[in-house]
Amino acid sequence: MSSDFExxxxxxxxxxxxxxxxxxxxxxxxxxxxxxMVANVEKQLxxxxxxxxxxxxxxxxxxxxxxxxxxxxxxxxxxxMGKLEADFKRSRIAYSDEVRNELLGDDGxxxxxxxxxxxxxxxxxxxxxxxxxxxxQIAVETxxxxxxxxxxxxxxxxxxxxxxxxxRETDANLGKSSRILTGMLRRIIQNRILIVVLAVIIIFTTxxxxxxxxxxx
Length: 217
Prior knowledge:
By secondary structure, the chain is mainly α. It has helices spanning 2-25, 31-61, 64-104, 108-216. The chain has four helices and no strands. It starts with a helix and ends with a helix.
């Protein structure tokens, strides 16, 4: 499972490197070349989003005890993705301003004001997106912690149940041992009483024999 994640990870690294290079070229191009570059970047960004979704699915399949490291890496990749999208938006805004100026012949001041306004709105949206993403990550991590706690409680419950079963077995064995020892003690006492009785009979018989022997003389 982790091997699939690492494969997606490598693809994501290669793809984001290509996207970064192409975003840097957008402001330097003109005309159809710039349009084609913008379209290519949009396509690659969509591919990068799909890779992130696949990676996130892989992380969910990883056991909870090993998931923390991969979750941290996913947060880093999502931040990188957000930065790429923000850079691309800035490139597109510059591209849109240039096209509008070419078509309408507007002066630079109006274009710059609109661009600044759009950049400000874009930054606000990015901040809101980051806050939502952080909230989502906290919720996911909380869910993971809850699952780990439930699993630990389940394991502890099984251990307690096994300990109780061992105690019951020990009590049963002690009961059997006690009954066996009681029976052995009873037999020992009975044997000793029998020996004493036999000894008394033998002594009595011996004394009677001696008595009658002496008396006969």
